Amino acid sequence: MPDPAVAPHQLSRRSLLRNTAALSAGLLGGPAVLSWLAHSAVAAAAKAFVDDYQTNTTANLTADTNAAVRILSGVQRLWQTGPTWDTGVPLAPEVLRANLRYCAAVTAARTEAQAARAFISDRQHQSYAVIAGLGALADVYKAGALAVTSITEAPTGTPATTINDAIPPGAPAGSAIGAGSPTSALGAVVTLVNTVRGPFASSNPSKFAVQYPRPWRMTEESEVIETGEVDDLGYPVYRTDVTVPAQLLRQRSNTPASDGGFPSGHTNALHLAALAFAYAVPERFQELVTCAFDLSDDRIIAGMHSPLDVVGGRVLATALAAATLNDPANAELKAAAREQAAAYLQARTGTTADTLFEYAHSADSTVDPYADRTANERLVTPKLTYVLPREGRDEPLTVPKGAEVLLETRQPYLTAAQRRAVLRTTALPAGYALLDGPEQWGRINLFAAADGYGAFEDDVEVTLDAAGGGFHAADTWRNDIDGPGGLTLRGTGTLGLTGVNRFRGGVRVLGGTLAAGSPRALGVGDVEVRAATLRLAQATVLHGDYRQRGGVLATPARQGAQAALTVAGTAEIGRGSSLELTVEAGSHLVPVLRARRVVSRFDTITVRTPGYRAEPVYTPNAVLVRVRRG
Fold it and tell me: Is 74:437 a contact under the CB 8 Å cutoff?
């Protein structure tokens, strides 16, 4: 607590003068470096977060005693905690100034609709709020989990009292706020969400340790200046350009010493709940992640938190969710939650493991606020770093121990090592102070990781099983994949590639179906198909050779278009090879394959479009097909 004998605004001004003088003289460089080195030394000697997360209690407030404080200690490169809540030292004043300016600009431009939404996301239980990320499955889930809320609209002005979420009148018997009732038909899922948000998942220890004030208590210079006045509600007035909506004025804490801004507790809770739901319902993994980013941004719109706070909350939640899901004590629970969610949702929607994903993405934007993947990416990408500057060289991410569990149900066909490779090759670059903290949990980009590898560092072998259903049977990698390695597909399932891919190790389709969804989907190496299917969605270009030894090349055949497959090298068609065509109406001659040299012929050609047949025309460097009715 501040010294009661000294007015807070006097402490702030004295601290400001001392800090400004020190910064001008360059005197803070030494202590700042020493502080950071001390935290680094502690981190180097510490257990991995997933093995130590239960130290995150308010009894432990130092980096050497609390794993959460430790992994967030990258903030110490930006902010040095003072002896009281209002005497901290900006170590990177330009960053913290940008942090406050961002808040001021956002709150100044805030609309009434945004203010109302900010109130709802502030007061509504966070575990309930992220159910919106389930899209077409949201109402089905709420009914099964008996999940309810009393916060559905915002008051027009400042409420007379504080408002908290509660069970609304008329709710079904057994209903509960948050994720729902543990005794409901989806009780295992509810219990998983509650467990991920359990006793060791609080942001409070880190708030108490860092003591970075909320933006509505600070100026651009990151100084805390209390005017000595009180407003109509009896709250102290601070000199700041950050405004809080009228609906939330009474929801503010009046005990600043225990009300730090970093990290954002709401953000931590939103991401924790979203990742728990994403484990149980991976069909909506990417949308749930997007929902958490979206609702967390409301904390800035509300003036309650800064970008730095929100990033810190997301970093903390990523690590805490991984730790809880890794804990052997929760192994049976997480498996039960996934099984229960799949069985219940399929039964209520009339789907199977193979069709639930399609149903989960069947609603338009009037029902599903996260229906547009491209819009989701635009929403998430800038919020990964907000105002944080980047400096220095990039370094590959050493994936934190246990982080791969976050993708366990989303990419069940990959090994743990492969999921770690996905996280590593889709990670944010190094060079962000907060994200580069111990274990670097902040560099994990789960939105991108949901879309598969970002690079093939070595050759990647994947087996998909059509009988396994869901993601065991089919998945699509949408990232632009680079790297020296190649891809081998086995099994009976289907893997789609839709990126502009530049991996150099080639493609071998030895089982199942590889669906190329873009002209550059197959990288820049050779492609081989054996007793499997290569399906092309559009004209595709190969920079190497094409070899088909049995199996199927399935492609559309469009009149006047470029060849369905253009091969820079040799196209070799072996014995037992088939060609499957989907054609447009009318009789015409269409190019199917062009290459520097074409060797041999397809044994069979099948037209999948009813009422048509095909006659092949072979040249030394092309395969064309004359499509006729009959």
Answer: yes
Token digits for 495? 């893997």
What does the alpha-carbon distance between residue 578 and residue 622 come to, in Å, rounded to a whole number? 16
Contact assessment for residue 212 and residue 72, using Cβ atoms and an 8 Å cutoff? no
Q: For residues 390 and 347, what is the distance between their CA atoms, to the nearest angstrom? A: 48
The answer to whether the beta carbons of residues 124 and 163 sit under 8 Å apart is no
Residues pairing with 121 in the sheet: none
Of all helices (H) and strands (E), which one includes residue 614?
strand 612-619
- DSSP summary character for residue 78: T
Q: Tokens 């199917």 appear where?
A: 592
Q: What is the DSSP string of 170-222?
A: TPPTT-BSTT--TTSTTHHHHHHHHHHTSTT--SHHHHHHH-PPPGGG--TTS
Q: How many helices (H) and strands (E) does the chain have?
A: 18, 21
In whole angstroms, give the CA distance from residue 410 to residue 278.
8
3-state DSSP assignment of residue 29? helix
Residue 8 to residue 18: CA distance in whole angstroms: 15
Partner residues linked to 236 by β-bridges: 230
pLDDT tens profile 129-173: 999 999 999 999 999 999 999 999 999 999 999 999 999 999 999
Q: Mind listing the pLDDT tens digit for each residue in 250-259?
A: 999 999 999 9
Whether the predicted pLDDT of 509 surpasses 70 = yes
If phi > 0 it is left, if psi is from -120 to 50 it is alpha, else beta; for residue 211 that is left
Model confidence at 22, pLDDT cuts 50, 70, 90, reads very low
Maximum Cα–Cα distance for the chain, whole Å?
Answer: 98
- Exposed/middle/buried for residue 510 (C-beta within 10 Å: 0-12, 13-18, 19+): middle
DSSP 224-280: --EEEEE-TTSPEEE--S----GGGGGGS-S-GGG---SS-HHHHHHHHHHHHHHHH
The band of 33, judged by pLDDT with boundaries at 50, 70 and 90, is: very low
- Per-chain mean pLDDT for the chain: 92
Please give the Cα distance from 337 to 354 (Å, whole number).
19
Which two tokens mark 278? 């994403």
Please give the C-alpha separations between residue 284 and each of 151, 263, 277, 440, 520, in angstroms, as whole numbers.
Answer: 24, 26, 9, 26, 27
SS3 call for 161: coil
Hey, is 464 helix, strand or coil? strand
